[in-house]
Design brief:
By secondary structure, this protein is an all-alpha fold. Helices cover about 65% and strands about 0% of the residues. It has 5 helices and no strands. It has helices spanning about 1-10, 25-30, 50-80, 85-110, 115-135. Helix 1 (about 1-10) runs antiparallel to helix 3 (about 50-80) and helix 4 runs antiparallel to helix 5. The chain starts with a helix and ends in a 10-residue tail after the last helix.
Length: about 150
């Protein structure tokens, strides 16, 4: 979901994605309904305050690039090597803690109701818990020393 949201933010900021819970309400909160013409790739729909809309689109594009970077890191770390190394353990601790922090930050935004933000916050919290569980519970045997 993070990768999908990131690509959406880069290519078409403000466009809701149906598989993301509450995304339509979330996007309309930051991108008001168009008043002139519809948006296109890389450009938000025109509103009364076009400069604010363009600024928000740029912020969402930067955020989207970071989403893509983070999702790629998670996918490579989880799926590209079966070995449970200590470096991987530290990465999982960092990613798990960051996911829990993101979930808390999402829920701390009061202008939007928990019914809008709760699904995304729950996904981050669950992912963070899984990363931390793996990091703290999975056995990681020490490898033999090289000579």
């Amino acid at each position: 979901v993070l990768l999908i949201a990131g690509l959406r933010n880069i290519l078409s900021p403000g466009t809701p994605v149906p598989i993301i819970p509450g995304d339509d309400a979330f996007q309309s909160h930051f991108f008001p309904a168009p008043t002139v013409e519809g948006g296109s790739w890389f450009k938000p729909a025109k509103t009364e305050d076009a400069s604010a809309s363009e600024k928000m689109a740029w912020i969402f594009q930067l955020l989207g690039a970071n989403f893509v970077m983070l999702a790629s890191t998670k996918l490579v770390t989880v799926f590209c090597h079966a070995e449970g190394t200590f470096l991987r353990q530290k990465i999982f601790i960092a990613l798990g803690a960051a996911d829990l922090m993101v979930a808390a930050l999402i829920l701390s935004y009061k202008p939007l109701d928990a019914s809008v933000l709760g699904g995304v916050a729950a996904m981050h919290a669950l992912e963070g818990a899984v990363f931390l569980y793996d990091a703290l519970i999975r056995p990681r045997p020490v490898k033999g020393k090289k000579k």
